[in-house]
Automatic annotation (TrEMBL), chains A, B:
Keywords: Exonuclease, Hydrolase, Metal-binding, Nuclease, RNA-binding, Zinc. CDD domains: RNaseJ_MBL-fold (cd07714). It comes from Mesobacterium hydrothermale. Residues 18-218 form the Metallo-beta-lactamase domain. The keyword Iron does not apply. Signal peptide: none annotated. This is Ribonuclease J. The keyword Hydrolase applies.
Length: 555, 555
């Protein structure tokens, strides 16, 4: 028995914000039975992942232990916790457990990949529990910026672990369950070995604000508006959608939802009973028949996503609706780092249309879904865990959160993705390191982050691409002159002569001078031609392009 | 005389932040004598301008009127006002005027392009003036985040215009001249036709804070530090460098400057006498011989620039110096939108080293260099101009600033890049539109933003690149099979067979089926092969790549 251990292993989400995926195990080393918590994604960008569609954790370690996995638990339906279920499930195979709203959305994702609804099992809130191998797991309600977010109460080998998922301590979350300190205290009473805890807002010094604080300022803003009102927020923030819609409703406006993601969320929330009393909505085609001052649009695209409703409205007509001078556009959201330029672009497009833009810079129209520093302390006080394991955060967040735990006299452990922590003893110990990384969904194919494919794209984007074609006859003699095609390079450089002419002249001379040994050897020839092209380009246009050499030998 | 007019024409900086370039003219329509104010740059990014080195205004309109340009004035030495002088001067040819510190830096830039120091003429502050054609121009001191920033007092045809440049109203700027409301009132006394005014911070509701407010919190922070202290800020913020260095000095630390840009700024500031009393600095190689707690590094790279000192220190040893657990790293700066991810990356690298990072999130360690909304109002009250022309701002800033002017009972005009405004009458009128845009410095070549070169790079980055090679003999018959090279694409797709094999098979079949008419016609053949490859790739890997077809005909 003493050789068995409880392990915690983050494969995503620890050392970054997004792409959450955590593993718990119990058993003899490398024979552990495993459960997976969350299968999230993160989003690509031009800087590091051009052309990539989605970024997922590399779950090779889990694939290799497929037979040891007893269950997958999803804490809540944000994409960075649920987004990869459909893409990665095939490699894991275990049943997926979630509460009703999350399960509803998980089934939609599984359906897109051809998996039936039975792959996802709905679990009620604590005290209901699920038995999964040596684990007994319950969903403990906690407030967040999406309905039915839950912490997991994980009982294993006589120990209790609590994995918070994403959370805030909200006494009035507008939709869904308020944070219930008494329930949490009761669940923690038997003693909690480890609190595995969201770290996102550890640097925010003030206590978090309740979702309910927004209704008054939003109502005042909408009531004051003279023409059309448009509001955008995260599609999954059902409480915010309700606050916005109610503000519109009270101002005598008909509500219209624009954007597929938003309609899907509302649908799931209504189907599962988490959302009631949402004002009646009208169809986009009915907007035109109403006076502008009697309409409020609630739209997707708060992060500036190019294809979402906000961006499309800012570029012109969308669903038959055009914004005009005097309309009001509210960003009831924060801009996630990296999305600033896109959001600002939309704001300027709207400005060109004469639309007045209001955002949360004054602190009135958005609250965070994550627990701030004092809230993290409060939760620690309630749960009173022996160990705190910070998760869901960049390195700096995990480090600060570890310090916070230690300051409060608890054992804290800084474990980034791939760090296997043994939670069995009195203090956590690092049991080893697992290779982790990222898997890209690229078109319809999964590729590894280190396969070099995306690196090649970045190189072409930075340096341009030259294609050199040479043909050699049966005797390895050049047949005609080599030639060049270019993509992404200036056509004329310092000589004021077309760059391809210069390159072809240089290549021709090279082929004339090249000895038999070079001409016979593809590698040598390719290397020589590449070096020549790169140097000629550097001289002519100050850039060293990527070069592909195509050697054709007539045989 | 009545046919002559005063015009204002922004070519950069109006409708964007950065890349400032403004033109003033006086004369009969299209015969105006011209002066240019500022020749700035803006910086490329992977999203829109991969591989580009620098972005400059398209000055074709000025080039076409080279003979009409009497002078170029540079308000201050920030890159977005001075950065293009060396690159664009050849097309303009007119003398460059600036105050001593700015002129010093302009000469360094001109020197890099082989132009002598006489191309830049040093002007003293108001009341000294420069006669340039019909214009008389004086440099009116104003505070900003770089020494000797100046507004321009432009007298022409009996009217006075004031072009603010970038500014804040700082009574204690630490280095350089404080804002002098009495001087500004005196200069404005004869009546100011138009105030052409910085708009950057029009959305900031509180009055701006003085540079001097930072010394106390920075001193307290540094005094408290236990090991090495590193601080980063904008290299050009000489006042901040002084504040930082003095804080280190008072805490008994030796100061070491890291980063070329920073040393160059200090050098220029000392040479021109704007900076005095800067603490003695030590060389990087002397840092190692001192106890860590006796050293403070002031380093470049507050925006996360990959090659700057901050980034290099966060990745490991730089100039023989390595950061360690317990060191303190201060970002005395704000992060410019778009740079968030790079800055955060550095913070996390530092966290991994155990370095404590402090930034301005608490509002203690940075102040903006631009006038906030109440400051803009104050300046309007002092200058009392007939017209306000907002400049240096995105569309939303210009719009809000125009409204602010109108709210105060003045004529305001929203003029984005390319809008020619006639300032001769009682109210400003739009006299026409000029085509404007951006010129990229790409390697050593200037290319147009719309040349399609960068667009091709972006396409390769998003879609990958396939090169198809076919050889046809003298009778237009295929010689051997076509083949494929790929760059930036997954090697294997849904068939689990190498993608190039699948493509080559498809291409081979296509060539076999192709009729004489297609085989004889390069365009037809290319189009057919491209379409085939794109569709096969879509089917196999879910992506449509860029395709280059190389057709070789043996003749």
């Amino acid at each position: 028995m003493s050789s068995k251990r409880i392990i915690y292993l983050p494969l995503g989400g620890a050392g970054e914000i997004g792409m959450n995926c955590y593993v718990y195990g119990y058993g003899a080393p490398d024979k552990e039975r495993l459960i997976v918590v969350d299968l999230g994604v993160t989003f690509p960008d031009m800087d590091g992942t051009p052309g990539v569609d989605l970024i997922m954790p590399d779950i090779t370690w889990l694939k290799d232990r497929r037979g040891q996995i007893d269950a997958i638990f999803i804490t809540h339906a944000h994409e960075d916790h649920i987004g990869a279920v459909g893409h990665l499930w095939e490699s894991l195979g275990a049943p997926i457990y979630a509460r009703a709203f999350t399960a509803n959305l998980a089934r939609r994702k599984m359906d897109e990949h051809g998996y039936g609804p039975e792959t996802v099992r709905t679990v009620s809130a604590w005290p209901e529990t699920v038995a999964a191998g040596p684990f007994t797991v319950g969903f403990l309600p906690i407030s967040h910026s999406i309905p039915e977010s839950s912490a997991l109460v994980i009982d294993v080998a006589g120990e209790r672990l609590i994995h918070t998922g994403d959370f805030k301590l909200d006494p009035q979350p507008v939709v869904g369950e308020a944070f219930d300190p008494d329930l949490w205290a009761e669940v923690s009473k038997p003693g909690v070995k480890a609190l595995i805890c969201d770290s996102t807002n550890v640097f925010s010094p003030a206590p978090g604000r309740s979702e309910a604080t927004l209704s008054q300022p939003i109502e005042a803003l909408v009531a004051d508006a003279k023409a059309l009102v448009v509001a955008t927020t995260f599609a999954s923030n059902v409480a915010r959608l309700k606050t916005l819609a109610e503000a519109g409703d009270r101002a005598g406006r008909s509500i219209c939802l624009l954007g597929r993601a938003m309609r899907r969320m509302i649908e799931a929330a209504v189907e599962t009973g988490v959302l009631t009393g949402f004002p009646k909505v009208i169809a986009p085609e009915d907007v035109g028949s109403l006076p502008r001052e009697n309409v409020m649009l609630i739209v997707t695209g708060s992060q500036g996503e190019r294809r979402a409703a906000s961006a499309q409205l800012s570029r012109g007509k969308y669903n038959g609706i055009t914004l005009k001078e005097g309309d009001l556009f509210l960003f009831s959201s924060k801009t996630i780092p990296g999305n600033e330029k896109e959001v600002i672009r939309i704001m300027n497009n709207l400005s060109e249309m004469g639309v007045d833009v209001v955002d949360d810079s004054g602190g009135l129209y958005h609250v965070s879904g994550h627990a701030n520093r004092p809230d993290l302390e409060q939760l620690q006080d309630i749960v009173n865990p022996q160990i705190v394991v910070p998760m869901h955060g960049e390195h700096r967040h995990l480090r600060e959160h570890t310090r916070l735990a230690q300051k409060k006299g608890r054992a804290g452990v800084l474990a980034v993705n791939g760090t296997m922590v043994d939670l069995s003893g009195n203090a956590p110990t690092v049991a080893g390191f697992v290779e982790t990384g990222r898997t890209y969904l690229d078109g319809s194919v999964q590729i590894g982050a280190l396969d070099g494919i995306v690196r090649d794209r970045i190189r072409m984007a930075l340096n341009g691409h030259v294609i050199v074609t040479v043909i050699l006859d049966e005797e390895d003699e050049p047949l005609g002159d080599p030639w060049c095609d270019m993509m992404g390079l200036a056509e004329v450089g310092r000589s004021h002569v077309p760059l391809t002419d210069i390159l072809e002249e240089d290549l021709s001379q090279f082929m004339g001078r090249a000895g038999e040994k070079t001409l016979r050897d593809d590698d040598k020839l390719e290397e020589g031609l590449k070096r020549l092209v790169r140097n000629s380009c550097l001289n002519e246009i100050g850039k060293k392009p990527e070069v592909t050499v195509v050697i054709s030998r007539l045989a």
